[in-house]
Every structure is written in structure tokens, then in C-alpha cells.
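Usage

Read records sequentially. Each one opens with the input sequence:
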Amino acid sequence: MKTIHRKRITTMKTLILNIVVILFALGYTSSLAQDTPCNCCTKEHEAFDFWIGSWEVTTPDGNPAGTNKITKVEGNCIIRENWISAKSGYTGSSTNFYNSESKQWEQLWIDNAGAHLKLKGNRKGNQMILISDSFKIENGGERYNRITWTKNEDGTVRQLWEVMENENVASIAFDGLYKKVE
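and closes with the structure output:
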């Protein structure tokens, strides 16, 4: 009885292996992978691709600000940022994606100090402009964050983080020039 059972298992294994080999030879396995739709391969999903790469970032006076590695992950649906500041001990990351329902880009930034920032917006020309919701300040007024990434003709990217009040710049939180590291 055990011999018959072993022969059946061996026969089944052989049959399955033969089916896999035949499917592979006929090209069915590669076509199965190609049939998976690319849900994030639209022009809108590529609007922030100019930021992808490994970067050295400097301040306007040329001093090191840090390094940033920007990659596309999850089937090209997410742009992930990994920031390491030139100031020892400060890091952060962001998840960026095009929201097909709201027709805009969204970013969630979280750093190792526990701070977070949520932004939304779109690309206009050679700039990605993302804005936070407004927040109250001590004098009762309101402000919001506006971060603009500008794709420069020389391949660099400028990131300018402005804190806005009544459509005017109240302060500059960050101004960095990204240069690709190859």
C-alpha cells in the first residue's frame, strides 16, 4: 500500500513539473507576469520622477545640508525619500504618491524626532508644489507650509520650503540644492 502511495506522489510531482516546463516553454509564465496591469504608469504618476536619484544636498551658501536617496517602489506607485542630515543624528523619510481619486500628489513626511508633515499639490511646469493644511499660530493667525521642488536645466533640483502667512512668505524653513551622486 505504501509503495502505491509513493508511486502516485511521484507521478503527481512529475506531472506538475512537466506542466510547468511546458507552460514555460510556450511562454505562458512570462505572459502572466506581463498581464499584470501597471496602475501607476500614467503621465501623472511620472510627474515627480525628476526627483528620483541619489543626491548630495547643499544650502544656498554651498555648505552640506545632507544626502537624500529618492526611489520608486511598490510597482512604481510610490516615491520614497530617505533623508540623512549633515547634522549628525537627524534623519527622515517621506512617502509620495499620486492620488488618482483627488487628482493630486500627496506626501507624508516623518522624521526621527517624531515630527510629521502632510502635503498635497501638483506639478506646474518644471515645479512640484505641495502645500500643507493651515495651522494656528500664537497671535491667532494662520500659516501653512509650501514646498516647491524645481527641476533645473542642469539636472539639479532646488527644494524650497516656505512657511506662508496671508499668501506672503513668513519664513524659509529649508532651501537646498540637490546634485546627483553617480
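Summary fields computed downstream for this record:
- The helical segments are 2-26, 28-34.
- Confidence is low (pLDDT under 50) at residues 28-33.
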